[in-house]
Amino acid sequence: MFGLNGKNVRHHFLGVYGKVVQIRELVEVLDQVFDSFHKVNTISRTMLGQRKASAKKLDRMR
Q1: Could you list the mean pLDDT of each consecutive 10-residue stretch along the chain, which spans 62 residues?
Q2: Whole-prediction pTM value?
Q3: What angle do CA 46, 51, 52 make, to 5 degrees?
Q4: Start-to-end C-alpha separation, the chain
Q5: How is residue 55 annotated by DSSP?
Q6: Where are the domains of the chain?
Q7: In Å, how far are 1, 16, 39, 44, 47 from 32, measured between CA atoms?
Q8: For residues 7 and 17, what is the distance between their CA atoms, to the nearest angstrom?
Q9: Residue 13 and residue 20 in contact, taking contact as beta carbons nearer than 8 Å
Q10: Hey, is 4 helix, strand or coil?
Q11: In whole angstroms, what separates CA 35 from the centre of its chain?
């Protein structure tokens, strides 16, 4: 069995903290990617206009 000392505990929590920081950075990048897709989608819709099928679908939703 291993002994608990301050160095091992500190090393463990620094490792966990590092992974949490990496996950936060990943979530930020994914959020930026989805925001970019949303912006591109919005821009393309304004440039191309709505398709007839989409307009009919929106009318049915109302």
Answers
A1: 76 89 96 94 84 61 61
A2: 0.57
A3: 140
A4: 66
A5: H
A6: 6-59
A7: 46, 25, 10, 18, 22
A8: 15
A9: no
A10: coil
A11: 9
Which residues, at least 6 apart from 58, have a Cβ–Cβ distance to it below 8 Å? 50
C-alpha–C-alpha distance, residues 13 and 20, integer Å: 10
Closest CA to 59 of 47, 40, 50: 50
Give the chain's radius of gyration (CA, Å): 24
Residues in the chain: 62
Q: 12-28 b/e with 16+ CB inside 10 Å = b? A: eeeeeeeeeeeeeeeee
User: Residue 45: what residue type?
Assistant: R
Q: Whole-angstrom Cα distance, residue 15 to residue 9?
A: 10
